[in-house]
Specification:
It comes from Blyttiomyces helicus. It is an enzyme of class 3 (hydrolase). Belongs to the DEAD box helicase family. This is RNA helicase. Its EC number is 3.6.4.13. This protein has 412 residues and is α/β, with parallel strands linked by helices. The chain folds into two domains: 244 residues, P-loop containing nucleotide triphosphate hydrolases (Rossmann fold), CATH 3.40.50; 147 residues, P-loop containing nucleotide triphosphate hydrolases (Rossmann fold, 3-Layer(aba) Sandwich). Helices cover 40% and strands 17% of the residues. It has 18 helices and 14 strands. The strands form two sheets. An eight-stranded mixed sheet has the order 1-8-2-7-6-3-5-4, with helices on both faces. The protein has a six-stranded parallel sheet with strand order 9-14-13-10-12-11, with helices on both faces. Helix 15 links the parallel strand 11 and strand 12. The longest helix is centred in the N-terminal third of the chain and has 16 residues. It is globular and about 65 Å long. The two termini are 35 Å apart.
Length: 412
Amino acid sequence: GINFGAYADIQVIVKGEEPPEAINSFSDTQLHEKLIRNIALMNYKEPTPIQRWSIPILLDQRDLIACAQTGNGKTAAYLIPMMQMFLQKGKTALRTDEEDLKRRRIAAPLGLIISPTRELACQIFDEARKFAYMTWVRPAVAYGGLDTKCMNAELDKGADILVATPGRLKDLMGKNRVSLRRIRFLVVDEADRMLDQGFEPDVRYIVEGSDMRKDESRRTAMYSATFPPPIRRMARDFLGDCLLVTVGRVGKIPLGVHQRIEFVEEADKKQKLLDILYEQEAGLTLIFVESKRACDTLDDYLYNLEFPVTSIHSGRSQAEREDAICAFRSQKTPIMIATDVVGRGMDIPNVLHVINYDMPKTIEDYVHRIGRTGRVGNKGTSTTFYNERNADLARDLAMVLMDSQQAVPEFL
């Protein structure tokens, strides 16, 4: 669960004119009774720092750019104000031209959440369904790899909130299956990763080149773990009267993560991994490797030793990937082996231990991997296998360790 005690120490900086006051509990806002009930059903006790600020800002009709690490409860930070807006305004006022759109089989969402990966899109969609439970608001999801027939059937049933990856959404718009003319609430989630993966032209086309309304009746929120110049430009182009909220150590590893760097030759890695797995306490363990082949090989090796293991990489079908994440999340198979490509898309709480079996190619990927543990104020551990092959990263790695107040081994 969430360690709220640790949240008291997290610094929050708010920039912009006349920000509303932060909330200390969900009851501080005049939320719709059905939304309050669903928040209670989801067992949300008190808001996280990003929720304390995001919710009142977006309810106050302001645009928002929020810099926070994944795993800070940011999905609820935008879904709650989005749901509140829709429930408050009502179905009749928002669902305009309903008969015409149905006749032409065009889905016209009220809320749009753009996500960089299918895994994240699925996670957001699951959350949206919980917040929309027993209301008229109907969430839908669209991403590459999803069966087209199945997706079209879901869109026909209604898509008041659409969660989509940029490529698939652009494709649906091109086929006139989706119109954005009704959009009242836009969220660009994990904007930095959207840029990393080359989606900026698609996102700009969706926001600037479509029939989406550009006036002040549209709320826009952008969430990003880092805030480099390209993100600032995008924010300037997409957002109106906005506030900037920065939560905690942006682009850095949470201080609650204990980082261990072990010098391990390539030939000794398997034995070292076994030593760790046999000794550690039970909990979710995420092991990163550098290739699909290494992922499959290590999975077979641990499976034959009767470890409860699963694995995930880009060569797997969408159904296989979802099954693996579900088995890991539920602790049916509490050990997961992953490659960077897929690992970056996962938001799984309560990961106890991240193991870098293969050191990543960049220090940014190291930071991102380690950030899978120590989420929402909890403690976590990371172990990285290092040898001469990784010497190029030695200096950067030492700097990250010092910045995180960790011991730097002599071999670095």
